[in-house]
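Worked example

This section walks through a single chain of length 246. The input is the sequence exactly as stored; nothing has been trimmed or padded.
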Amino acid sequence: MRLAVISDVHGNLRALEAVLADIKSRSVDITVNLGDCVTGPLWPKETFEALQSLALPTVRGNHDRWIEELADAQLSHAGKFARAALQTEQRRALHSLPANIDLGDGILAVHGTPDDDCTCLLEETLDDGRFAPARRDALKTRLKNAAGASVVLCGHSHQQNVVHGPGGCLILNPGSVGCPVFADIPIAANLEYRSPHARYAVLTKRNGNWRAELLALEYDWASASARALENGRPEWAMALLSGVVG
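Given that input, the structure is written out below as tokens.
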């Protein structure tokens, strides 16, 4: 069994296209999407339509929920841009996505944690906004409602990682397809150096054992950066081009 895992596309159609092409070359059995599909000053409508045409098993991310629930004043600039670009039924389709998906074979797909799409599963947020690995007690608490899962797929933090968790549970975050830094957050300019690569993962089960491949692809990030600049978001343009804001 081969499973491709994508997450946090954030409206970056160019990165999504590169990842989908790479997935096609790897003969996977299924591709699952862990949410935060369109929010970003790039191609929200086009990204929605591309993902909709694939009909992938897709978890609802916090931004997929917020685009329908929050008032304009509560949304980030990226959220407002995406809301304006999407039709009402498209926003409602994102909001109606499931919070969790049981993929069978002991695999649970979530966005943040099984109980909260705004909490990172594998990370703690430090005072300066950077991530540190979650303590064991915190991770155990966050997985209390994932009993029976031998594999948990999570996104939200945009941090690519594989962890051998409580009870031998394999936890995988594939990283972000299209958003190395969410440039609307106030602390974005203080974060560590990152890279502009499009990230995803492939899980392979053979003879009862799982093997995880964490992938980082070059794509036309200059095009994505130019699109952000055209839409009046220079901080996003810099983040997409370099992985750094400011």
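What to look for: Residues 13-24 form the longest helix (12 residues).
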